[in-house]
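[09:14] KT: can someone run the structure on this one? pasting the chain below
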Amino acid sequence: MTEIGRWMDGLEEQAARALPSDIYGYFRRGAGAGMSAAEASEAWDRLRLRPHVLRDVSACDTSTTVLGTPVATPVLVAPSTLQRKADPAGEAATARGVARAGSLLAVTSNTAVPFSALPASEAPWWVQVYVVRDRSLTVEVLQRAKAAGARAVVLTADTPVIGSHRKPGAHVADFVQPEDLYGNVTGIPAREAAEHAPDLTPEVIGWLREQTGLPVVVKGVLRGDDAREFAAAGASGILVSNHGGRQLDGLVPTAWALPEVVDAVADTGAEVYVDGGLCRGTHVLAALALGARAVFLGRPVLWALTVAGDAGVARLIDELTHELSEAMRITGTSSLSRMTRDLLWALPSVNGWGT
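[09:31] RB: done, structure tokens below
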């Protein structure tokens, strides 16, 4: 294990010592017995690589674009609530680190940080939204995000209700003060008005596009038939995610779900992204070889932000990108566009793909 890897591997333990125990527990926990949260990285570990050799890898390019935005790395930052508990500047600090690394972040609508604080970082960003019962609250968030420079809308689609954790604080609103969540709406909304809408259909994708004029990415997709339906409804991107294992225990790992989703939207023009358990450069390479355009990091960013603020976020992204670059060279792939599924040997067979 390299020094880079050792720093990354020790981040959670350092963050656990620095954070209040209840905040660390909230960041860390999964639904039910925590099986889905625990097996996310293991699912990526079960994939094996089949390198090409005698390829010119004297230059290795990790740059790409996501919905037309150039980035220096396919390692992006997922939306996470309560970032101000990790660093007083919250998403503003995360954005500064993202900008230094040449990456992109998605910013949760459940943040105390005003979107207007983000442009100074010069980081490109997308706004994540939960469509709530009072649609006017969602519209206000969208309007403020667009005015501040958001480049896309990420619709979290897998939370018609908040999954039970069988312990107090299952809902973030039970766990913190309202002012920790509503920095981009006028006043503190009534709790019922801010509850997630349980009646959403694919038509909401078009509604979000109409409200903003921005591309929409649907987050929380684990099935190919859903992904194709959402692309047909106007989604520009699909984010394969099981919500970090926080919604329901026993959900399929994203590493297993990704190939089906990629195949389902291959002819639609929709880009596919993935999150969940990615913590090594080889994990990132495997995701890209399976057809993801980019990957999103969740909990590791919270640990890095806690331990070293914006510099920690930049270091995390840089080091994973460095590991990706090294893995690309060793597998004979000089650019992301050269990655294909035949770089992988899956152990064991998963739903008919791999060997």
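[09:33] KT: thanks! The chain has a mean pLDDT of 92.
[09:34] RB: yep, looked fine to me
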